[in-house]
Specification:
Elements lengths: L3 H22 L5 H5 L31 E7 L6 H7 L4 H8 L16 E7 L4 E7 L4 E8 L2 E8 L3 E10 L7 H7 L4 H10 L15 E11 L2 E15 L2 E9 L5 E4 L23 H7 L12 E4 L5 E3 L4 E9 L3 E8 L3 E11 L8 E2 L4 E5 L9 E8 L2 E2 L18 H29 L5
The structure holds zinc ion (ZN).
Amino acid sequence: MNSYPKSNLKIALLLSIALSVIIVILPVDERIDEATPVSIEVAKGDPESNTPKSRQLEIPQTLPKDEKWIHLKIRSGDNLARIFQRENLTAADLQKVLDLGEEVASLRKILPGQELSLKVDRSGALLSIQYKKTALETMLINRHSTGFEAKWIRAEPERLIVFESSKITKQTPSLFHAGKAVGLSDNIIMKLSHIFQWDISFALDLRNGDSFSLMYEEIYIDGEKVKEGQIIAATFHNMGKIHMGVRYIDLAGRSDFYTPEGQSMRKAFIRDPVHFSYVSSSFNLRRLHPIHRNVMPHRGIDYAAKSGTPVIASGDGRVTTRRQNESSGRYIVIQHGEKYTTKYLHLSAFARGIKPGAKVQQGQTIGYVGSSGWATGPHLHYEFLVNGVHRNPKTVSLPKAEPIAQDEMQRFKSQIRPLLAQLELYRTTGFARALEGGSTGK
Ligand SMILES: [Zn+2]
């Protein structure tokens, strides 16, 4: 416990190193300016405006005595005309503002709860309108000698890189448990699972001692976290094997995850045809065993899940069979190219449009878990066949997706090398923190 502060310092240090690295190595990436703390550029170079450099835009101290700001929250049923009337502003000023046309179109779509501020002088003449459309966008309308002028002020979000790592243990046996233990949001946990969904069965193959680490973005506006961004890089140690994925935006602007060698993380088949978050842990599966009522030869993988849980196609293909029989219950067979076939048994129902000849995409819902046929409890029985022979999808070698284009390989390598180095540095030093200080430290 007493090493905790030191470890925190270490994290902070790493964070700052990582930030500077990212700033240096991604000169063409859009993240560059967003990583730089920039507050709103209110009325920069506009001598007529007294508004302070802040998103709140409070009444400036230096406001002339005969001018004042009126701050409003838009009410249900409000429109600009109604607000002008309520605040004793003139119809002539309203007209001048509306005459700005397209530029002020947003003012015609104001919504209850949004903030609007009006600057008026003693005579009741309108000097400025400030309309906060979103946390990021504010419209500012200023009076000039010839009329009004509108402009948008955009707050620049700040991006911080966060490192985190966790471990599968008896207390945290699933990806969700292990992620939650270190404060990851559902959103980030899902994104993490998506990176590795072709390589790791999160439903069945997590083991005590498996571990992961990741770097992801958190987005702040005015020092307040507004959302999480993308995962930048992640590693997953699963059953003695290390999987690594790093995000790369190619020259065409497409972003995807790749191995450090530049292979796409995508593959022809995802591991789990039932999302891991629905699947009862393997401990439960063992307790339920046997889930087949009969001694039919067992050549598949069983996923115990509640009746009605969506079953998804593990790869792109075409439905060849949608049928019901005594042993398999309701079942679906999908053909994937010439070589591969997958089967999904004991369903409670078929998804709409799933019939022989139907094209399906990887991840598409094809049916729902049930216990039809020779099953004692709800589960999906999944089979994977290569050239008609039952195989273990874990060990069979599969065709790979498109790698990074050769002419982009240099760019790819130079971008990801420092990211992976940072992640590895964190992983090796950060785990010491987890071991010393417990799993909830942040
Ligand atoms: Zn089975």
